[in-house]
TrEMBL record:
Keywords: Cell membrane, Glycoprotein, Membrane, Transmembrane, Transmembrane helix. PANTHER family: ANOCTAMIN, ANOCTAMIN-6. GO terms for biological process: calcium activated phosphatidylcholine scrambling; calcium activated phosphatidylserine scrambling; sprouting angiogenesis. Residues 288-872 form the Anoctamin transmembrane domain. It is found in: Cell membrane; Membrane. It is a multi-pass membrane protein. Residues 62-285 form the Anoctamin dimerisation domain. This is Anoctamin.
Length: 916
């Protein structure tokens, strides 16, 4: 068989016929359709789609004959009215469209076109997958069909005692009926009889038929020139030949269909799942999976499980918060800060070159607030969260394995997932499959693969460094602008226009607002550019399957977004205020800008504030955006589309066309939002115990918002198979491992828990207090500085500082002025450092050991699921073995009959000869 070039995509829609690869047709088309394909290749198809009138049945999901179901919709614009200068393009698009549709018909699909009711230049092409084609592609796609009823008896459990209560938190079982529990096996045409008997209309569900139709659409050719074959609906959509391609919703979301045979699954999903009144109910996951496919089903299963687990973390987090609130008035060190005889008499050193002296008790309110979050209970909560995240991930794997069995995706990745047409189009090199030992086509050699992966890794690292550089640039900008505004606003000089702003705008406020706006603009620009770059890199790597493609893209996008979202929090937690020197010798960046110090209340309260703003603000904004944007887009599109004055209710396919399409990265951003939130809940939870509670409230709303959006505002999502949450699983595990280290370092280096413990056990007695006490901690944690030792670089005429202050204090453990080692670290500092390092080592080892033990003790697959899997494999083998025996006996029966007849004739001949 000769090789032929397959072209999936090109930069030039009309004239680019560049060679993209060599491939055998068997890779793209099922064996049964190869003769059909060769007929298409030999002569230009002449079949045209039949155009029929609308039959005024808005709820119909069938062709005009009322028998053939609509399994997919293609929409194109009749461009005969285009200007003359575009006639050439219009003609070329029309030719490609006619060729493509003719190829679809020769490949077995049935098409019927209907003109739009409200816009005459729109045409809707209805696609039907006939029974024979369904059977063929069910085998190609390894679709599993029931082979026997599940005879596994459900054991009575303690949980059944509470059914009278829990039933109120479940969807209405009278409306959403549970399907029969069956064992399944991949469909095979020649073994059709071994599967459970069902009507042809119910044998393959609408979502299965949509998958088959999409599989064919993605591989059907639309142009053949010589040995160059252009194929795939993706390219036709991108080039404007078609405006949309989507499967149909089965009814309107808020009204049942008038067609009796319609299952009204969309209506049921809206009423029992997407409606806000169901916020307290569990999700109908089986119906979600049946309607939207396993990929969407596994997302909502994970989101629901994550939300349930957050309830436990929220209870402990709230207890930690209220404990801190209870002890804030009893905190000794907080009382010392607020005491006018202690904190009121301590003069603190300026925190920047343009700052003035300040009194310690001016931070009284901040210190009380800090007490709520910075106490010993926070340490206990951080350890609890390290255990919680491990339990969450391990039990999710158990639940996921149960869903894999129930949804027939156990062996999906290994055996059933087909290769992408883009991959098939690039297969030009031969190699021997290490498993089968058969020669196969691959898109590149080992060296070529390494080169492409290296290009991808290098590009991702470059963009990560780019965003890190932007963060550093923003920090330098903050320092520079703060310095400039401090001088300008206090002494406007020639800038007279700034004079009215002096009483309303502070340097800190102006710097924060402008830096925030610049940071927002930079992030949005980098996000937009990087998304395109990440898609281009992933396309360049040519992953074999859709799952491989999404996992690769997910990893690239998340690495960038991780730096994007968490960089500010990591900066505040572990960089800001850590390398600042002392008042007489501060540290400068680029030799000009003094390094930022923490706010008077400390960096922990600043990090807590940052997390509260990000989690609260981001959650509110995202939910508003997810509700308003699709609704407004649909409203505007519906207004523009329904330009005519016809008062005719449009058909189902026209109503769906007015909805928003669900993009390739749609589900990625849903996962990303939740995983970023998971990071905030785990990575910095030691500074904000309310994070799990805020996440819980957000997720309860998020589930219903996502459900409402997908059910009412989006076209029906193309059902796709998925075995698990893909690359997000190792990402979650990596965050869980990193969270132990970040929380340990957060408690050690950002909070004052360790310094307070060191003072309590080691230095409080030496200070003369007798028994161990926290009295005197504030005085012990502040070092002395002689104001005459200010370096000339830190003194400026822009600030008039009181001259009668000779001693000021600053947060550090250093020798006082006049000491032989003045302003160097004292022994207290080294005690604290040793305690911090010991704390990190002990906590990390204990936490990681606990995580390892829990991961080992909790099996990934439950005993019940494991037994059911064994039972399914056993029954499948028995039934298929019987079918194989019957097939063999049928094939051998004529041969046995001929052999018996031949032997009988031989015996008769021998008897006749013996008589002579």
């Amino acid at each position: 068989m000769d090789d032929n070039i397959l072209e999936m995509e090109s930069d030039n829609e009309d004239f680019d016929d560049s060679k993209l690869g060599m491939i055998h047709e068997e890779v793209v088309y099922p064996e049964e359709f190869l003769p059909t394909y060769y007929a298409i290749k030999a002569e230009v198809p002449a079949n045209k789609t039949n155009l029929v009138d609308y039959n005024n049945q808005p709820d119909s999901l069938f062709f005009n004959d009322g028998v053939r179901s609509v399994d997919f919709i293609l929409v194109y614009e009749d461009e005969e009215t285009k200007p003359l200068d575009k006639k050439c393009t219009v003609k070329r698009r029309k030719k490609r469209r006619e060729y493509f549709e003719s190829c679809l018909m020769q490949m077995g699909l049935e098409l019927e076109a209907t003109q739009s009711v409200h816009k005459d230049n729109l045409v809707y092409v209805k696609v039907h997958v006939p029974w024979e084609v369904q059977c063929t592609y069910a085998e190609v796609l390894h679709i599993k069909i029931p082979i026997a009823f599940n005879d596994h008896t459900v054991q009575y459990s303690i949980g059944n005692l509470f059914d009278c209560i829990t039933k109120h938190f479940k969807p209405n079982e009278k409306l959403i009926k549970k399907e029969a529990d069956c064992y399944t096996a991949p469909y095979q045409k020649e073994r059709h009889g071994c599967f459970l008997k069902m009507d042809k209309e119910k044998y393959f569900t609408p979502s299965m038929r949509s998958r088959m139709a999409n599989f064919i659409l993605c591989r059907a050719p639309y142009e053949i020139r010589g040995n160059v074959k252009k194929f795939g609906i993706t390219k036709l959509l991108r080039s404007g030949v078609y405006k949309a391609a989507y499967p149909l919703h089965d009814c309107r979301f808020n009204v049942k269909s008038t067609v009796e045979s319609c299952p009204n699954e969309r209506y049921l999903l809206y009423k029992e799942w997407a409606h806000p009144k169901n916020f307290y109910k569990t999700q109908p996951l089986d119906l979600i999976r049946k309607y939207y496919g396993e990929k969407i089903g596994i997302y909502f299963a994970w989101l629901g499980f994550y939300t349930k687990m957050l309830a436990f973390a929220s209870v402990v987090g709230l207890a930690c918060f209220f404990y801190g609130y209870h002890i804030q008035e009893k905190s000794t060190w907080s009382k010392e800060v607020c005491d006018p005889d202690i904190g009121g008499k301590i003069v603190m050193c300026p925190q920047c070159d343009l700052c003035n002296y300040w009194i310690l008790n001016s931070t009284c309110d901040t210190s009380k607030t800090l007490t709520i979050f910075d106490h010993f209970g926070t340490l206990v909560f951080a350890v609890f969260m390290a255990v919680w995240v491990t339990v969450f991930l391990e039990f999710w794997k158990r639940y996921q394995s149960q869903l894999e069995f129930e949804w027939d995706t156990v062996e999906f990745l290994e055996q059933q997932e087909p290769s992408r047409p883009e991959y098939d189009a690039e297969c030009v090199h031969d190699r021997i499959n290490s498993v089968t030992g058969v020669k196969e086509k691959v898109p590149f050699t080992f060296c070529g693969r390494c080169f492409r992966i290296s290009i991808g890794i290098g590009t991702v690292l470059f963009w990560i460094m780019l965003i890190v550089a932007s963060v550093v640039a923003i920090i330098i900008y903050r320092l520079a602008v703060f310095f400039s505004l401090s001088i300008t606003l206090k002494n406007p000089g020639n800038f007279t226009t700034l004079e009215p702003l002096k009483d309303y705008v502070t340097p800190q406020m102006a710097t924060s607002v402008t830096a925030g706006l610049i940071n927002f603009v930079v992030i949005m620009i980098l996000n937009t550019l990087y998304e395109r770059v990440a898609i281009w890199i992933t396309d360049y790597e040519i992953p074999r399957t859709r799952t491989d493609y999404e996992n690769s893209l997910t990893l690239k996008m998340f690495l960038f977004q991780f730096v994007n979202y968490y960089s500010s929090c990591f900066y505040i937690a572990f960089v800001k205020g850590k390398i600042v020197g002392h008042p007489g010798q501060p540290v400068y960046i680029l030799g000009k800008y003094r390094n930022e110090e923490c706010d008077p209340g400390g960096c922990l309260i600043e990090l807590t504030t940052q997390l509260a703003i990000i989690m609260g603000g981001k959650a509110i904004w995202n939910n508003i955006q997810e509700v308003l944007l699709p609704w407004l887009k649909n409203l505007i599109f519906r207004y523009c589309t329904r330009a005519s004055d016809k008062k005719v209710e449009p058909p189902r396919w026209e109503q769906d066309f007015e909805l928003q399409p669900f993009t390739k990265l749609g589900l990625f951003y849903e996962y990303l939002e939740m995983v970023i939130q998971f990071g905030f809940v785990t990575l910095f939870v030691a500074s904000f115990p309310l994070a799990p509670f805020l996440a819980l409230v957000n997720n309860i709303i998020e589930i219903r918002v996502d459900a409402w959006k997908m059910t009412t505002q989006f076209q029906r999502i193309l059902p796709e198979k998925a075995q698990d949450i893909g690359a997000w699983q190792p990402i979650l595990q990596s965050i869980a491992i990193l969270a132990v280290a970040t929380n340990a370092m957060l408690i050690a280096f950002t909070s004052d828990i360790i310094p307070r413990l060191v003072y309590y056990w080691s230095f409080s007695v030496e200070e003369g207090y007798g028994n161990h006490t926290m009295s005197g901690f504030i005085n012990s944690s502040l070092s002395y500085f002689n104001t005459s030792n200010f370096s000339p670089a830190t003194v400026t005429d822009a600030v008039e500082r009181p001259r009668d202050i000779t001693i000021c204090r600053y947060r550090d453990f250093r020798f006082p002025p006049g000491h032989p080692r003045q302003y160097q670290y004292n022994m207290h500092y080294w005690h604290v450092i040793a305690a911090k390092m010991a704390f990190i080592i002990v906590v990390e080892h204990v936490a990681y050991l606990t995580k390892f033990i829990l991961a080992s003790v909790i099996p990934d697959v439950s005993y019940t699921t494991r037994e059911q899997l064994k039972r399914e494999k056993y029954l499948t083998q028995v039934i298929l073995h019987e079918v194989n025996l019957n097939l063999v006996s049928k094939r051998l029966k004529p041969a046995v009959h001929d052999m018996s007849s031949h032997m009988a004739r031989n015996i008769d001949n021998e008897l006749e000869l013996s008589e002579y």
